[in-house]
TrEMBL record:
One of its GO terms (cellular component) is outer membrane-bounded periplasmic space. Keywords: Signal. The keyword Repeat does not apply. GO terms for molecular function: endopeptidase activity; serine-type peptidase activity. It comes from the Bacteria. This is Tail specific protease domain-containing protein.
Length: 567
């Protein structure tokens, strides 16, 4: 009988603890949402009147003590009212008929109608949501550029990831900054509201190194290739040694494309064009998912492959790894390979590469090819002069040109000025608007390219893109695509077009995000952010028989069939 009583008591205590813990987590979520709304929308807070970090730290321990809906409502109402003042009062947004043209995809305030809230609290939260008398202490528009500025954010001077209140402030500050400042946050694969719900219990429980690793997982949910976290402890701890070969990720395998030392490669039984299908007996797809993509923010799977060519295939905290390899002749082998430090790699210089072994495609007489990677205004002028009589020109933009702008190439391709991009920019907390509004528009529209040019190139422009076409390259690609006869060939691009915006986090580190949305003119249904630029012909990828010039060969074959033979 005593055993039964003891067991019942343990079960009751366990149930009570779990129930109280769930209440605590739910109340924490209510408070984080309310704290963000007050910070960015309250007239006396959004103007910098209060230190909201300290307000969070003072309130959070009391939030954990709330046990009922009544206590939650009373606490939140009193907490919000302490910021009220007759000096600055709320003013409701006023719109006539259907004049509210703001971008509202990120204005997700459904939580205000939560069943836990009484009518009084709902009214107060609703008034904050609709308030137009918002200060510019944290978020404002740059008067010249018309772009978002994030200001007066700072790290917590005594931040400790051993302190639960500090960790929860870290989450609250980052999550709310993205909710109210990031116009692309509606594009995340996991809805941003669900991210908060998921991470509250994780942030509550994890501290020390576990919390440091958790930050990378949190940032990965941004699905933004510009959000690379340079302070990542996970990457620093787990990737100390590097392989001495380069590879490309094709479907779920890795193809070795170059070897930094052919003698070591021969000794360790690896060769060019080998297809790696497993690492330490783990399939490559699973190995990447567990070790990399979980901790890296990327706009799409193609962008992830772009990052992995730098971090992968074999960067590890171990100096030896076993690879499962399929040879070009079909043989399957397992071989152990060595990994090296950066200093050791720098001393290896006995290169071999598929780019030298594979044969560059033969260009028909009527087709020209130009790689834009090292292009300059001077070289472009010479190139288009030489290619004036070509029926088709292949422009290779699977790179990041540093010497040219979005105006340099289109001036040879367009008969007149054309808009190539519609910008979605931040306008007020949680809202956006179309087009830049800064004084810069009085000088020059940054999203218009080309000039009056009766001698523009009238042949077919074949634009090559892939995972390496990122950021500025995508911006340039959208401008080139305005050419009257432009055909885009390749694979999905990085999906991160506009400029980065830096955010200071509560632990003093920083992370970037893409501050604007990119769309094609007259098509606001297709977001280039995350999706990448529009492509007319996708080139199939194949690991077996991989050809480093396969995309160029595809373009040459397409030009023969669709341009030269139809001429």
């Amino acid at each position: 009988m005593k055993k039964i009583i003891i067991l019942f008591t343990l079960l009751f205590c366990t149930f009570t603890f779990a129930q109280n813990n769930n209440i605590s987590l739910t109340n924490t979520e209510h408070f984080i949402r309310t704290w963000g709304l007050v910070k960015y929308k309250h007239p006396n807070v959004s103007n910098g009147g209060y230190d909201m970090d300290q307000e969070f730290l003072k309130a959070y321990p009391n939030v954990l003590k709330l046990n009922t809906k009544e206590e939650l409502n009373t606490f939140l109402i009193q907490w919000i009212k302490q910021f009220d003042s007759s000096r600055r009062v709320m003013k409701k947004e006023q719109f006539k008929n259907n004049d509210d043209t703001r971008f509202k995809e990120n204005a997700r305030f459904e939580w205000i109608e939560d069943a836990s809230y009484n009518d009084a609290l709902k009214t107060i939260l609703g008034d904050l949501r609709d308030n137009a008398n918002v200060g510019e202490y944290y978020l404002r528009i740059h008067s010249m550029a018309g772009s978002l500025r994030i200001e007066n954010e700072k790290g917590l001077s005594d931040f400790s990831n051993e302190n639960e209140s500090h960790r929860m402030l870290f989450l609250s500050s980052f999550w709310n900054t993205m909710r109210y400042a990031n116009v692309n946050i509606y594009l995340t694969s996991t809805p941003w509201d669900e991210v908060l719900t998921t991470f509250i219990p994780l942030v509550k429980d994890k501290k020390g190194k576990d919390f440091d690793y958790l930050k990378d997982e949190l940032f990965a949910f941004l699905d933004d290739s510009h959000s690379d976290y340079t302070a990542s402890k996970y990457l620093k701890d787990n990737f100390k040694y590097h392989c001495m070969f380069r590879s490309v990720l094709v479907n779920d395998s890795l193809v070795i494309t170059s070897l930094q030392d052919k003698d070591i490669a021969q000794k360790e039984n690896i060769a060019l064009r080998d297809v790696i299908f497993s690492v330490d007996e783990v399939p490559v797809k699973e190995y990447i998912a567990n070790k990399f993509t979980k901790y890296i923010s990327s706009s799409n799977s193609s962008s992830a492959k772009h990052y992995l060519k730098y971090l992968f295939p074999l960067i590890s905290d171990k100096q030896k790894l076993t690879l499962g390899i399929k040879r070009a002749n079909g043989d399957i082998v397992n071989t152990e390979v060595s990994l090296f430090t950066f200093d050791e790699l720098s001393k290896l210089n006995n290169w071999v590469s598929l780019y030298y072994e594979d044969k560059f495609p033969t260009l028909p007489q009527g087709v020209g090819y130009y790689n834009l990677d090292k292009a300059t205004p001077k070289s472009l002028k010479e190139t288009f002069k030489n290619f004036a009589d070509k029926k088709a020109i292949i422009l290779d933009l699977r790179n990041y040109p540093k010497g040219i702008s979005e105006r340099d190439v289109p001036k040879y391709l367009l008969p007149e000025k054309r808009r190539f991009l519609d910008l979605l920019t931040w306008s007020s907390p949680a809202y956006g608007e179309w087009g830049p509004k800064g004084a810069i528009m009085m000088v020059a529209d940054p999203f218009v390219t080309g000039n009056k040019n009766k001698d523009y190139y009238k042949g077919t422009v074949i634009l090559l893109v892939d995972r390496n076409t990122a950021s500025k390259s995508e911006f340039l690609a959208m401008a080139i695509q305005q050419a009257p006869n432009c055909v885009t060939i390749g694979n999905q691009t990085a999906g991160a077009v506009m400029n980065r915006k830096l955010v200071i986090l509560k632990d003093g580190t920083t992370i970037d995000f893409t501050s604007g949305g990119a769309f094609y003119p007259n098509d606001r249904t297709y977001s280039v952010q995350r999706n990448g630029i529009k492509i007319d012909h996708i080139v199939p990828e194949q690991a077996t028989g991989y050809n480093s010039y396969g995309v160029i060969q595809y373009a040459v074959d397409w030009a023969k069939e669709n341009v030269l033979e139809k001429d």
